[in-house]
Write a structure and sequence with these properties.
Elements (H helix, E strand, L loop, with lengths): L5 H15 L1 H23 L8
Length: about 50
């Protein structure tokens, strides 16, 4: 579908860093990882938010 080379990926990465900044990219990645973990645990039926 998309055939991106190494140069194109580097240019895209630089543009993303310029738009969002390094600190905000880390925060976005953290939130994305948390969402993926939550999604996976929801699919497997695990309940990490047990209230007693």
């Amino acid at each position: 579908m998309f055939h991106l080379g190494q140069t194109e990926l580097i240019v895209i990465l630089v543009i993303v860093i310029l738009l969002f900044g390094v600190g905000r990219i880390g925060k976005i990645a953290n939130e994305l990882g948390s969402g993926i973990r939550s999604f996976k645990s929801g699919l497997s039926g695990e309940d990490n938010n047990k209230t007693e």
